[in-house]
Amino acid sequence: MTYRAFINFLCLGNRAVTILNRSSGHIQMGIRNIASQAESGFNPAKVAVVTKMTRYEFEQQRYRFSELSEEDLKQLLALKGSSYLGLLERHNIHTRNVEHIVESLQKEGMEVRVVKRGQYDEETVRWADAIISAGGDGTMLLVASKVFNKDQPVLGVNTDPERSEGHLCLPVRYTHAFPEALQKLRRGQFRWQWRQRIRLHLEGTGINPTPVDLHEQQLSLEQHNQAHRITLMEAQRSEACSLSKPYLLPVRGLNEIFIGESLSSRVKYKSFKPHLTLSLHRASYYEISVDDGPWEKQKSSGLSICTGTGSKAWSYNINKLVEQAVGEVLRIGKAQMGLDIPLSQELVEKVTDEYNKSLVFGPEEGRMIFSIREPIVNRVFSSSRQRGFANRVCVRSRCWDACMVVDGGTSFEFNDGAIATITMNEEDQLRTVLLEN
Amino acid sequence: MTYRAFINFLCLGNRAVTILNRSSGHIQMGIRNIASQAESGFNPAKVAVVTKMTRYEFEQQRYRFSELSEEDLKQLLALKGSSYLGLLERHNIHTRNVEHIVESLQKEGMEVRVVKRGQYDEETVRWADAIISAGGDGTMLLVASKVFNKDQPVLGVNTDPERSEGHLCLPVRYTHAFPEALQKLRRGQFRWQWRQRIRLHLEGTGINPTPVDLHEQQLSLEQHNQAHRITLMEAQRSEACSLSKPYLLPVRGLNEIFIGESLSSRVKYKSFKPHLTLSLHRASYYEISVDDGPWEKQKSSGLSICTGTGSKAWSYNINKLVEQAVGEVLRIGKAQMGLDIPLSQELVEKVTDEYNKSLVFGPEEGRMIFSIREPIVNRVFSSSRQRGFANRVCVRSRCWDACMVVDGGTSFEFNDGAIATITMNEEDQLRTVLLEN
User: Fold this and answer.
1) The pLDDT value given to residue B345
2) Mean pLDDT, to the nearest integer, of B37-49?
3) Do B273 and A227 lie within an 8 Å CB cutoff?
4) In what order do the strands lie in the sheet with B207-213?
């Protein structure tokens, strides 16, 4: 067959376009509902409350799947060292906190829709003037992932403060005092916080602009069977899809973009047992150019590009040093410099603290930090800079079976021949609120 | 149903036993063949040569799968920015080097069996007096994974020295001068290198002692369909399998054991598309006790426990520091100490070098290094020691859907309730050779 026919035969261009329209879709819808709010305080008429799935619900769904009774579930959890009653208690705490939020909103005369994270979709986003995430940071990331309108406010309420951090949520005391938070919001006793987000352009070959949702941990059996009907040819096609001009992906990164090998597509037509797809230490090959600088070959356990919001999340854990390492470096340095001043634990803590602080920056800053994770240095690959600030990062994939994952929630194929351009844009800011404790 | 009946109903005990017998199986067989060699030089009568799968073969198999012609394959690779001829050239280099090895062995009157890595099995191990891995380190790890007899020598020959490092292989010059290597081996002009390996005992619940092979990236369609017949109930059962006394797993770790969350079993009955199973930054919860010390709660991107051999591999990349980080720590330390001595690039290099050297130790040493990967420190989790030497590491899983992966090749479920004891034992040494360059 001819080259052109071959590309056409392999492409999924139309699928890509559909998504483009869908996503720009909400942007228009959204503006109509909310534009008015931008100036005034927080006075939404319609609020969607998106709730997390608790571990209790997860286990229930999982075992109902295999037709076990409630009694069996108790025994099964006991076997696994988890307490059924413990999970139930956390579940009830979450549920009570959600009810508290909903009642508070209704008392203020707002129309409320409670949506389980599994049911959260574009329609909900279009309907709502504001969205409240009721769960932890994971739920907040999911909620934000579908919001493309910088005028549509998104709030996070941590519904289990004892067990989760909730960096993206309101101060924890408002979990139990939500009416007070609402009063402050209505009176404008808060500050809008515009969290910068990352946008992605893809071009070249070996890519598939169709996003795959990782957020949803549960699917109905039908969808499950659907998924199994995916043929290899389809996988082939998507893998070889070729885009002539940069394509703006229909997602925005609030925390980070992670690029890495998965190995899994090698085994995808072999089995879907979990183990077969775990290969965390498979090295990723790629070329990177920072702020239009020269292309540099890299081999590592992946590449992370984060926002100020994300600089406190995974990126922080990739880059931070523990006191043990800092202490050893200082000891070696002292010896090498021939100094014999004492090295106090206090000093080690100070240095560690100052070093780690340098890895964090503000959510509203229009720059990113890129981090080469576990760089592999050998005669073929150098690693001049392991991390740094950047306004624009370009990555050319040399991977066999890689993915580009946005906020650990949405994934895109990113194989040999694909080029990603990672930037920030004012339009993409997420509108959240900053409320004093 | 009763508790006991419930456990029985859920257990796979018999499957586990089968494996145990199989593995101890080769140990006896092996000794008969090879015991004599232990004293003398290297004079095997029967040699198995296990060959890697080249990228060319991989792509071919992959696309033959979807009934593409050789011509289509060329175009498809071109689309992905890879060169068909380039892959073919590397393939031919590998093939020539394998032929060179085989002919050299036959000239010495040895009986040779060439086995593709996909066909390498216990029967091959039983048959052979010695095994030669013809590929890179990955092939060597696969070969070693099936050898349980410390008297059965395993050699690695790097069949593509220009492209791979081959730390576990003979010096690269012997790739093209294999007869010379053979002469030295026969005359005993070498030293046996006994590489220590890690053994694993599993107990508790939430485990499945059945190993899953990740080494094989290719499977026949039949096996593929087999895999799809795995029912959820089966997954449930294995997950909840309960072992009363510690069970010695039928594998030995030459490089390392990695424990981490996979998320994938949450989506395994959803789809087997690669993306769905990639969630590299899902935190793993577990408790760890080093050298029978107190149990410490940990939350991190996984846990690695490596041998001296493995201390140059993944573990090294997890722990090593780049000059950028060392330079910053020294600068901060200098400032904090109020010193204004200059900080030369040379010093930074020296310190980095000395620090990274401290992460590596000899393959024959009977100790391990544990590394907590990207530890998460917050009000709930401390991280006193991120890494250190150990003779015995115990890990109690608090993970939902975790795996314990041996040398990136064999995986075991390791969920909530499971306890792993990680040690070293003289019996488990892998017998390799040290040949001067």
Assistant:
1) 93
2) 80
3) yes
4) B207-213, B410-414, B402-406, B256-261, B303-306, B368-372, B387-390
Give A-chain residues touching B230 at CB under 8 angstroms. Answer: 271, 273
Give the three-state DSSP class for A51: strand
Q: Are B256 and B302 in contact (CB under 8 A)?
A: no
* pLDDT tens digits for range A360-416: 999 999 999 999 998 887 655 555 688 999 999 999 998 777 788 899 888 888 887
Inter-chain residue contact A278 with B277, CB threshold 8 Å: yes
Contacts of B376 in chain A (CB under 8 A): 317
Q: Sort out which chain A residues have CB atoms less than 8 A from B206's CB and list them.
A: 79-81
In a mutational test of the A interface, the residue from B54, B268, B275, B319 whose CB has the highest number of chain A CBs within 10 Å is B275
pLDDT for the residue numbered B285: 87
Structure tokens at B373: 């990967």
For A307-311, B74-78, B196-200, B234-238, which range has the lowest pLDDT when averaged over its residues?
A: B234-238
Residue B238 has pLDDT above 60, yes or no: no
pTM here is 0.79
Identity of the residue in A65, A266, A280 whose CB atom sits nearest the CB atom of B258: A280
- Chains A and B form CB pairs within 8 A to the count of 300
Q: Where are the alpha helices (DSSP H) in B11-113?
A: 13-34, 55-64, 70-79, 84-107
CA distance B239 to chain A (A): 9
Contacts 24+ apart (CB under 8 A), A161-167: A162/A93, A163/A90, A164/A136, A164/A137, A165/A136, A165/A137, A165/B378, A166/A136, A166/A137, A166/A140, A167/A137, A167/A312, A167/A313
Q: Tell how strand A207-213 and strand A303-306 pair up.
A: unpaired
